[in-house]
Amino acid sequence: MHMKITAQKGDNGRYDLLVMGMFEQEVEHIKKIDEKLNGEIAAAIKKKEFTGETGQLKSISTLGKLPAEKILVIGLGKKTDYTKENIRRAAGAAIRVALSLNARKCTTLLHEAECESTTESERIAAVVEGSVLGLYRFNQYKTDKKEQEKQVDELVIPTNNSEANEAIHKAETVCTSTLHVRDMVNTPANIATPRYLADEALKLKKLGVKVKVYEKDELQKMGFNAFLAVAQGSAQPPVFVVMEYGSGKDVYACIGKGITFDSGGLNIKPTTGMEDMKMDKAGAATVIALMETVARLKLSVHLICAFPACENMLSGTSYKPGDIITSYNKKNIEMMNTDAEGRMVLSDALSFIEKQYAPKAMIDLATLTGACVVALGYWATGLMTTDDGLFEQLRDAGKETGERVWRLPLWDEYKDILRSENADVRSVGRSYDAGTIAGAIFLKNFVEKTPWVHLDIAGTAWMPENKYYYTKGATGTGVRLLVNWLEKKVKD
Ligand code: BES
Ligand code: ZN
Ligand code: ZN
After folding, report:
1. For residue 259, which atom of ligand 1 is closest to its CA?
2. How far is the CA of 72 from the centre of ligand 3 (A)?
3. Which tens digit of pLDDT belongs to each residue from 27-44?
4. What is the mean pLDDT of residues 248-274?
5. What is the CATH number of the domain that holds 328?
6. d(CA 358, CA 26)
7. Do 125 and 256 belong together in one domain?
8. Residue 51 burial (C-beta neighbours within 10 Å; 0-12, 13-18, 19+)
9. Candidates 369, 430, 456: which one to mutate for ligand 1, based on the most atoms within 8 Å of Cβ?
């Protein structure tokens, strides 16, 4: 299953596949190789079969004339538009071609073409990211092993760069954890229960992470009533998990929504697509994997990652629209739609983490609203905050990693949406207008003074089809974004 990635000085060995890129109309640097291929690439260009447009693929058999059996040329688009994200995407597309060809031993030149103001190490990292993420498959439950038999065993990156191995190792670490998110999120609700997520968190103890699992009776005593209200309709016991790594006075906290299945509750969801609601634990899976990465890289930060995990189900014990529930921070919530369960479970978690750890910044990740998918689709995470500095930091981290965020406003005028007749706050508005913002406005009631960011990953945590280095299903979004953000907090 595991692909070995190595940096290699000099040109040696035989490969099943050599991957190279070509900019639009820039035939010059492929000429040397093309000559050995009897000008096949030039001919394809002439016929307009291949122009170098972004994403175009052309594979050519070398008939033994080169140390690789096949060559894959990838269109890189216009040189002036070329970015690190293009490298990741090209590498992702290439590795999938390699997989389909069962090319076991591959080599790539995609790190060579310069772009933006990147160093070669950064470009090597991008190649590794695209390759590792693009190779992912969720097939452990297929007993017919035919597909599994196709593999890429080795990817060789030719370079004289002495920092290459470090760049490879780091990118591999972050991406392996990203794939861990994909596995957790793709695993269905009958297997990936709240307990399962707690066990995944407990595994991090061997990396030096402190892990505390709060069970139902303890949560009752603590007053986690908004969380427990959601959990009360399910046969699966809820858990609230807090992980801690590192030390120091500046604490950063990340909190993930961990609904292992969102049926909608009494406000039940429609049949179509309900099976995808196993993905409603993506926030929790992301913070587990973030903790894993930070511990593996031994980043010198003090990090808290926490998640409430439960199912949102229908039964005689379910919470009901109209219920008034007193949260951990003693606000009375008029709960008006059982399908808006994410904000309920997060509210107690946010207040608790703020009170216990007084973090310097607190970020929550949640597949919170369908409205966010309507607004932004799959290519931007919805970001809401009142802290401009944190917005800028995350926007920059998003640009660097390709996990882009897009800010939506939290102006005071939006507060009216959640004014309640009978309690302190309604859990949802009277209409679906500004649904994503309404979710954030609700959460804001549970954060007193900590600089806080809400990330709505409803559209970015899940891809409807294979695209670039994303694979159908869970994406693992958030890990690379937040590792990048945290790295800049490291004091050296
Ligand atoms: N988990 C859903 C949001 C969601 C929808 C995530 C689609 C990913 C894809 C969330 O719990 C939910 O159901 N939200 C409601 C809120 C509404 C009742 C205000 C929604 O979006 O309809
Ligand atoms: Zn819901
Ligand atoms: Zn949900």
Report:
1. 1
2. 42
3. 887 888 898 888 999 999
4. 98
5. 3.40.630.10
6. 55
7. no
8. middle
9. 369
Q: Tell which one of 272, 339, 343 to mutate to probe ligand 1, the residue whose CB is within 8 A of the most ligand atoms.
A: 339
Q: Which amino acid is at 124?
A: I
Ligand 1 surroundings by CB, under 6 angstroms: 262, 280, 337, 339-342, 367-371, 373, 428, 435, 458
Judgement on whether residues 192 and 152 belong to the same structural domain of the protein: no
Q: Which of 150, 195, 269, 296 is catalytic?
A: 269
Asked whether residue 170 is domain-assigned, the answer is no
Query: Does 171 reside within a domain?
Result: no
269 classed as catalytic: yes
Span 147-158, average pLDDT? 93
Q: Are residues 125 and 211 in the same domain?
A: no
Residues 6+ apart with CB under 8 A from 104: 16, 151, 152, 153, 154
Indicate the number of domains in the chain. 2
Query: Dihedrals φ, ψ of 38, to 5°?
Result: 55, 30
Q: What is the mean pLDDT of the chain?
A: 96
Task: Flag whether 91 is in a domain.
Answer: yes
Residue 133 lies in a domain: yes
- Between the CA of 336 and the centroid of ligand 3 the distance, in Å, is 14
Strands 68-75, 57-61: pairing kind: antiparallel
pLDDT of 161 above 90: yes
Q: Which residue has the tokens 């179509």?
A: 272
Residue range(s) defining the domain that contains residue 293: 176-491
pLDDT confidence band for 116 (50 / 70 / 90): confident
pLDDT tens-place string over residues 118-139: 999 999 999 999 999 999 999 9
